Recover the amino acids of this structure.
């Protein structure tokens, strides 16, 4: 399997929140088709999955997982904890690699009673619980920025600052233009989309 | 991109040694993808029973899948037989599981270390299709077995006491993984004795 690593996804985990970021561009050969693609799929009210990889496999796999998680809820009347959802996803990837591979690398994050969890998964079905992670070429640039600016005891504001630094790094040094990123924050109240520029605009007004 | 052997996609190193009425098993802690470090707490040795440990090197997804499968097999064995499994029997089970996939193998090289019911030390190594070997001294597996064999052959001597075995095992592993670009980032060593076992984490070169 030849991996296209053009999709940049990265994520950080705090004490009670998880931030996931993914680039919003879809390219085909030398053409930029779209830059409003949402690659962060909401599996449940408190669990999200940022997916990178093949443009066809990604929605197929992510929708498949989402619908299975929802089916469980319909059948059994309650949600699954993050760890269970992550293990289910890994099982599907590990089965698929030898039967009909999905070329999708996943960063799965969620918040439940046991706290915030972030899982790194690759298309082979390897899974590790992590505090910060990245996939794709963007990951090469962002990993060291995350190492420098992020530790799990920091606040949501620090997290947003860290995200900004990461996106800036990709936009400065990565050859491919990825002008737009979608960032989602998961905490005990659910999933919300974060606008990083809002802070700087508001700060400008306050000054 | 570099064409890498599938057994070197994620780096790893596992070592097992026989002592006087004791065995030791050790692994590195790195989880990496084609040379890039992702996590530094990925143990490759698993406690299967009080006096039986399994080490798995090779492709990380198969390490995780095979560990889950073997734990299932072991639980079923305990329910059916009403007793714990002998290390030599467990090694046969693994060999059987691996050969069953002779033409589509799990990309792992397992190492079994334990004390049987008479507290006799047992170690066994296998290749990815289950060919077992039960040497009298030590077993090495991983992305750089040449280095492991070298240090072990030099530093090993028979009938070592537990603390001595711990020291020799640690030094052999650390010296070898320092020469392996893909494995490392610390090590974890377990010594199994008739009275019980102890596990210690080592901090080596963090590169």
């Amino acid at each position: 399997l030849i991996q296209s690593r053009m999709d940049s996804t990265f994520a950080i985990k705090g004490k009670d929140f998880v931030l996931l970021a993914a680039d919003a561009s879809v390219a085909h050969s030398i053409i930029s088709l779209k830059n409003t693609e949402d690659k962060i799929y909401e599996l449940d009210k408190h669990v999200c999955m940022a997916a990178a990889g093949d443009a066809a496999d990604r929605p197929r796999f992510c929708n498949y997982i989402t619908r299975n998680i929802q089916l469980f809820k319909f059948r059994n009347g309650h949600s699954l904890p993050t760890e269970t959802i992550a293990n289910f996803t890994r099982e599907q990837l590990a089965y698929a690699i030898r039967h009909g591979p999905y070329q999708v690398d996943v960063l799965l994050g969620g918040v439940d009673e046991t706290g915030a969890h972030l899982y790194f998964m690759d298309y082979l079905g390897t899974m590790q619980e992590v505090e910060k992670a990245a996939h794709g070429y963007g990951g090469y640039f962002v990993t060291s920025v995350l190492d420098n600016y992020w530790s799990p005891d920091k606040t949501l504001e620090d997290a947003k600052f860290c995200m900004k630094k990461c996106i800036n790094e990709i936009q400065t040094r990565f050859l491919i233009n990825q002008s737009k990123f979608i960032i989602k924050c998961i905490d005990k109240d659910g999933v919300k989309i974060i606008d990083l520029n809002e802070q700087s605009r508001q700060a400008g007004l306050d000054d | 991109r570099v064409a890498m052997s599938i057994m070197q996609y994620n780096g790893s190193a596992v070592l097992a040694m026989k002592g006087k009425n004791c065995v030791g098993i050790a692994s590195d802690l790195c989880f990496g993808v084609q040379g890039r470090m992702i996590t530094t707490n990925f143990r490759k040795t698993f406690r299967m029973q009080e006096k039986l440990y399994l080490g798995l090197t090779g492709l990380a997804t198969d390490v995780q899948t095979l560990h889950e499968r073997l734990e299932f097999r072991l639980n079923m064995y305990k329910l059916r037989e009403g007793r714990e499994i002998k290390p030599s029997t467990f090694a046969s089970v693994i060999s059987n599981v691996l050969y069953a996939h002779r033409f589509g193998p799990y990309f792992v090289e397992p190492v079994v270390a334990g004390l049987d019911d008479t507290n006799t030390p047992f170690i066994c190594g296998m290749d990815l299709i289950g060919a077992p070997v039960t040497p009298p001294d030590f077993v090495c597996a991983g992305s750089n077995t040449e280095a492991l064999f070298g240090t072990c052959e030099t530093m090993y001597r028979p009938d070592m006491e537990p603390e001595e075995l711990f020291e020799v095992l640690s030094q052999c592993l650390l010296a070898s993984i320092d020469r392996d670009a893909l494995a490392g980032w610390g090590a974890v060593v377990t010594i199994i004795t008739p009275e019980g076992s102890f596990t210690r984490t080592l901090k080596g070169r963090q590169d």
Observations:
- Chain B has a mean pLDDT of 95.
- The longest strand of chain B covers residues 108-115.
